[in-house]
UniProtKB/TrEMBL annotation:
The lineage of its organism: Bacteria, Bacillati, Bacillota, Erysipelotrichia, Erysipelotrichales. Pfam families: Lactamase_B. Keywords: Hydrolase, Metal-binding, Zinc. This is Metallo-beta-lactamase domain-containing protein. GO terms for molecular function: hydrolase activity; metal ion binding. SMART domains: Lactamase_B.
Length: 207
């Protein structure tokens, strides 16, 4: 499986590109500058964008959506975060003095899996960073958004965040995956192994 990462935007957000039989699957596209746009175009080239998957609705994870949408592209987001796409107060773009509103119409995630081409992504609810935060598990690759990061977790003090929801999500995720080998692909920072996070991440090792 070919997975590539670009780190883009004002807050160094990770955008992931997965080769599929029909083109590319993109997770959390961030395009904030002309340099970001050029880097993404070089990555995409002339490949069709089959689907865009959003782990949550903050501006740095959705800013590239309209740039990448094509006629047959399907945009997926949780129902609880769909309003972030059109509300700068919710998506946080007001903090960088922009009013980001996505024009593309999303497909709401309404089950625990998404099938794209020959791939099946398991959808894991991870509320805490936002109410509608989700992770996408593809085989042993977990695209985790701003839920768990290398040695840390996502902040809970933004619109829609909840420290209680985050705590419960961490407990649930740990119980589900503590005996499984999975790689975590976070929204910021380095890719890591969940087994390493259990040992060294203070937000997980104490739970």
């Amino acid at each position: 499986m070919n997975i590539q990462k670009l780190t883009l935007g004002y807050v160094q957000t990770n955008t992931y590109f997965i080769d599929s039989p029909s083109g590319l699957i993109v997770i959390d596209p961030c395009i904030a500058t002309p340099q970001d746009y050029d880097a993404v175009c070089e990555m995409v080239q002339d490949k069709p964008i089959v689907a865009i998957l959003l782990t949550h609705g903050h501006f740095d994870h959705i800013a590239g959506v309209d740039h990448l949408m094509q006629e047959n592209t399907i945009l997926y987001i949780s129902d609880k975060d769909k309003d972030y796409l059109v509300n700068p107060q919710l998506n946080g773009s007001w903090m960088i003095q922009e009013n980001l509103m996505i024009n593309a119409t999303p497909t709401i995630i309404n089950s625990n899996k998404i099938e794209v081409d020959s791939f099946t992504f398991k959808v894991i609810e991870t509320p805490g960073h936002t109410h509608g935060s989700v992770a996408f598990l593809l085989d042993k690759h977990c695209f985790i958004g701003d839920f768990i990061m290398d040695g840390s977790i996502g902040r809970t003090d933004l619109e829609g965040g909840s420290s209680l929801e985050m705590r419960n999500s961490l407990i649930t995720f740990k119980k589900r995956f503590e005996n499984k080998k999975i790689s975590l692909y976070p929204g910021h920072g380095s890719i890591s192994q969940f087994s390493d996070e259990l040992k060294h991440n203070p937000y997980l090792s104490k739970r």
